[in-house]
């Protein structure tokens, strides 16, 4: 039986209930954060919290995350995940419970805070080494995807389209430019240069994305953040996605066509190995 956190309490998941008047349920009025832990050690926790605080400020949700680390650590302990190779804590904060209306409820309305922990399984080395397929999907999301909103219907539909097509990733395209995946950031390698879209309001500022940029630079790789046209991405030497649970995931087919030679490339492999050496130490 898993233990979750809900509004200051730790309780069995089956006993956790949220009002039908919660604004997260009625209006998707909230945001979320997913933080990874490796053998009980959270990866770049401060960056996750800073992104959370920025989102809370933007949405004007009055919540002080002062006890967030303690909550995360206890959820790992309560669910016996401290020694797990890889696990995550999902945190969701909504504006709270109030009669449904588009405008904000009274200031005294308390936010709803929910979190759970679970392990996540990495693919074995053989499966990872085969690479994965992705398809392109029009980007129908709202204009501030840098805010980690719980309003994820366009992402859900894009990801399901990928699954229905036999792929594992959906690459979102807007005005002929590739932005990111349905739940991950994307990189292309062009003439050996690691390339990704700038951290603007059009993409989520991924924590693993930032880590990979830093690792690539430390490894002496050329890195550039710039817009990438879909036609250019189709000719990339390598494509890989990054994310909290994706880590570094190679894409060897895009819309049914091989990326490069159709095999996991050396840049992707080197970055993944380096990432693993950092988080698994």
Overall description:
Helix content is 28%, strand content 30%. It has 281 residues and is α+β, with helices and mostly antiparallel strands. It folds into two domains: 3-119, D-amino Acid Aminotransferase, Chain A, domain 1 (2-Layer Sandwich); 125-279, D-amino Acid Aminotransferase, subunit A, domain 2 (D-amino Acid Aminotransferase, Chain A, domain 2, Alpha-Beta Barrel), CATH 3.20.10. The strands form two sheets. Strands 7, 8, 9, 10, 11, 12, 13, 14, 15 and 16 form a ten-stranded mixed sheet that branches. Strands 2-1-6-5-3-4 form a six-stranded antiparallel sheet.
How do the strands and helices of this protein lay out in sequence?
Elements: E1 3-6, E2 9-12, H1 23-27, E3 30-38, E4 41-42, H2 45-59, H3 68-78, E5 87-94, E6 112-119, H4 125-130, E7 132-138, H5 153-164, E8 169-174, E9 177-181, E10 185-190, E11 193-196, H6 207-218, E12 223-225, E13 228-229, H7 230-234, E14 238-243, E15 247-254, E16 257-258, H8 266-279
């Amino acid at each position: 039986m898993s233990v979750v956190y809900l509004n200051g309490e730790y309780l069995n998941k089956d006993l956790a209930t949220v009002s039908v008047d919660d604004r997260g349920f009625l209006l998707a009025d909230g945001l979320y954060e997913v933080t990874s832990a490796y053998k009980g050690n959270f990866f770049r926790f401060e960056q996750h919290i800073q992104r959370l605080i920025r989102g809370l400020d933007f949405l004007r949700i009055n919540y002080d995350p002062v006890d967030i680390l303690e909550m995360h650590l206890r959820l790992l302990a309560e669910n016996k995940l401290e020694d797990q190779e890889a696990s995550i804590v999902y945190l969701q904060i909504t504006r709270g419970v109030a009669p449904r209306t588009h405008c904000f409820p009274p200031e005294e309305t308390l936010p709803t805070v929910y979190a759970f922990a679970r392990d996540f399984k990495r693919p074995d080395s053989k499966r990872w080494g085969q690479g994965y397929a992705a398809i392109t999907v029009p980007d129908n999301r709202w204009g501030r995807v840098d805010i980690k909103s719980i309003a994820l219907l366009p992402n859900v539909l894009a990801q399901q389209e990928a699954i229905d097509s036999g792929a594992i990733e959906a690459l979102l395209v807007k005005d002929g430019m590739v932005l990111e995946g349905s739940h991950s950031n994307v990189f292309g390698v062009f003439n050996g240069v690691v390339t990704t879209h700038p951290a603007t309001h059009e993409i989520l500022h991924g924590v693993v994305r930032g880590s990979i940029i830093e690792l690539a630079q430390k490894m002496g790789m050329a890195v550039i953040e710039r817009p990438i046209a879909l036609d250019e991405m189709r000719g990339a030497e390598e494509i890989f996605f990054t994310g909290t649970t994706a880590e570094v995931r190679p894409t060897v087919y895009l819309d049914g066509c091989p990326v490069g030679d159709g095999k996991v490339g050396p840049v992707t492999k080197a970055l993944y190995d380096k990432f693993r050496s950092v988080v698994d130490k």
